[in-house]
Amino acid sequence: MNGSQLSQRNEPVKIASIDLGTNTALLLIARVEKDKVIPLHNAQIILRLGRNIDASGLIQKEVFDKVLNAIIEFKATAENFNVDKIIAIGTSALRDAKNGDQLIEFIYQKTGIKIRVISGEEEARLTYFGAVSGL
């Protein structure tokens, strides 16, 4: 079920959103009802995914396991909430790292969750909408 199919449904949908940022992994589980997003659960894990990327250009190998453990934990939480869809995005650290694709494939092989790396422009847009959504 893709995003447009979810938004066209009349009944509420539960979605788990995973955001893999440079320093933290965030989980939001929400119920989506037409044009409303109702948060049900939030969690965060500090991963330091971007540690030393500027110097080496690489995500450190020990971080691969930290990311895997976080995704496994988030997936279990999402399943406990009986979500309809899990969406995972990666931001600047995955965009910048030479081995970002290797991490994405590693996570997919271990969990079945595909991480979509978003552009800097899309990241800024989503950050803005997230910030003003509470106003």
What is the element layout, followed by pairings?
Blueprint: H1 3-8, E1 13-20, E2 24-33, E3 36-46, H2 53-56, H3 61-80, E4 85-90, H4 92-96, H5 100-111, E5 115-117, H6 120-132
Parallel strand pairs: 1-4, 4-5
Antiparallel strand pairs: 1-2, 2-3
Helix pairs in contact: 3-5
Give a brief description.
The protein is an alpha/beta fold and 135 residues long. Helix content is 44%, strand content 28%. A hairpin with a 3-residue loop joins strand 1 and strand 2 (24-33).
Q: Give a count of the beta strands, DSSP E runs of length 2 or more.
A: 5
Radius of gyration: 15 Å
Total domains: 1
User: Main β-sheet, in a few words?
Assistant: 5 strands, mixed
Count of alpha and pi helical runs = 6
What percent of residues are in strands? 25-35%
Structural class: alpha/beta
Question: Mean pLDDT score, rounded?
Answer: 87
Shape, per Cα inertia axes: globular
How far the N terminus sits from the C terminus, by CA atoms, comes to: 30 Å
Q: What is the element string, with H for helices and E for strands?
A: HEEEHHEHHEH
- CATH fold group: Nucleotidyltransferase, domain 5
Poorly predicted regions are none
Q: Helical residue percent? A: 40-55%
For the record, the CATH class is: Alpha Beta
* Largest beta sheet: strand ordering: 3-2-1-4-5
CATH hierarchy: architecture: 2-Layer Sandwich
How would you name the CATH homologous superfamily? ATPase, nucleotide binding domain
